[in-house]
Amino acid sequence: MFFERPGGGERAILVHLEGQEPGVREDPQEFQELALSAGAEAVAFVRVPRSQMTAKYLIGSGKVDELHQLVQSTQAELVIFNHTLTPSQERNLERAFECRVLDRTGLILDIFAQRARTHEGKLQVELAQLDHMSTRLVRGWTHLERQKGGIGLRGPGETQLETDRRLLRVRIRQIRKRLDTVRSQREQARRGRRRAEIPSVSLVGYTNAGKSTLFNTLTGSGVYAADQLFATLDPTFRRLDLEDVGPVVLADTVGFIRHLPHKLVEAFRATLEESSNADLLLHVIDAHEPERQLQIEQVLAVLGEIGAAEIPLLEVYNKLDLLEGIEPHIQRDVDGRPERVWLSARDGRGLELLRQAIAELLGNDLFIGTVHLPQRLGRLRAQLFAVGAVLKETHDEAGETLLEVRVPRTELNRLISREGFQPDEFIQQHTLQ
């Protein structure tokens, strides 16, 4: 009997495995939020003890029969597992339930497919979906696994399944080639920022921690922000001016999640590289989340996977508006450096403290002193005023300008180099002749 894969739908039964070890345990509340974000209408939530796991169905045959009856009684069109299923387990479950079956990875991929807006984002999602689909082609083409014989049925020596796999590989290579071009373009942009010595700050954190809301409040942008998982997929960049630092580039990036599928990490590597090449990471944390410590550990694990574990990091505890008795404040380490900032991105409380903390971490190499400018260097004087570096201006007996400045050394180097001078010589002499 041929196996044709059932169609999908929105009415879904959610299946969660209980009693797993902490390292592989999934959060049932997060699972329901994922299903809601994908647009599913949950008609039932079933918890299955881990002791009933089997190789054929993942769950026991008795529970399979129970779920089959539940599918029929609720007229469900989809069964979603909060767990990773093998291709054979998905096929066996779909045969048993007579409806579509989706695992956690497939659910997250579906959400990403809905959220992607830019051409790059859509390519990244398609790559992850094709990688995931390549191991599951056998389900839809079981009736074409054998080459047909007889008059009019002899083919080119390749089964339909082999043809599909070959076409899939071709498409995957095309997408990876395009994403390599995107990666090189991003690297060119980063090199340009490094030449201009403009620091970059990247927002990272668990999905729905409030990164986009914070990004909008800090920069006055209109990036899409919603109380849902994976509201942001495509990175967004804005300029942020900070006292004692000058302009910085702030990046809003995709959120992480517990057990983020490796296919997604690989597909979104071009996007995630913005975090691995930043000068400072702002780890946005939902202060109201009971499982926040597990979320923090998951974010740190993904940062390690993309090579960003050694980048300076400032923790930003967001959503103080949902807590009582805690006011915005900065927590510092034993050396007095900012370590955590507590704030509310929604109502704006604590944003100045965040600006102050970022400026301290990025602008710790400050030049504070007097600059002696001849009259012919009026343009440099104007630039120092423009970046807010001048604390006081006086003039000597010859009418030349004396400026007391407080400015990041990198910004001072950039301005001096534009005038054709050597920054090191100037910094040692504290005067420009």
The secondary-structure class comes to: alpha/beta
CATH topology type of the largest domain: Rossmann fold
Q: Percent of residues in helical segments?
A: 40-55%
Order the strands across the largest sheet as they lie in space: 6-7-5-8-9-11-10
Structural commentary:
One of its GO terms (cellular component) is cytoplasm. It is found in: Cytoplasm. GTPase that associates with the 50S ribosomal subunit and may have a role during protein synthesis or ribosome biogenesis. Belongs to the TRAFAC class OBG-HflX-like GTPase superfamily. HflX GTPase family. GO terms for molecular function: GTP binding; GTPase activity; guanosine tetraphosphate binding; metal ion binding; ribosome binding. The protein is of the alpha/beta class and 433 residues long. It folds into three domains: 11-102, Rossmann fold (3-Layer(aba) Sandwich); 198-363, Rossmann fold (3-Layer(aba) Sandwich), CATH 3.40.50.300; 366-432, Alpha-Beta Plaits (2-Layer Sandwich), CATH 3.30.70. Helix content is 41%, strand content 20%. It has helices at residues 28-37, 61-74, 87-97, 104-115, 119-133, 137-140, 160-195, 211-219, 262-267, 269-276, 292-305, 351-362, 378-386, 409-418, 423-429, and strands at residues 11-18, 41-49, 78-81, 100-102, 200-205, 236-242, 246-252, 280-286, 313-318, 329-332, 338-342, 366-373, 390-395, 401-408. It has a seven-stranded mixed beta sheet with strand order 6-7-5-8-9-11-10, sandwiched between helices. Helix 1 (28-37) runs parallel beside helix 4, helix 4 (104-115) packs antiparallel against helix 5 (119-133) and helix 5 (119-133) packs antiparallel against helix 7 (160-195).
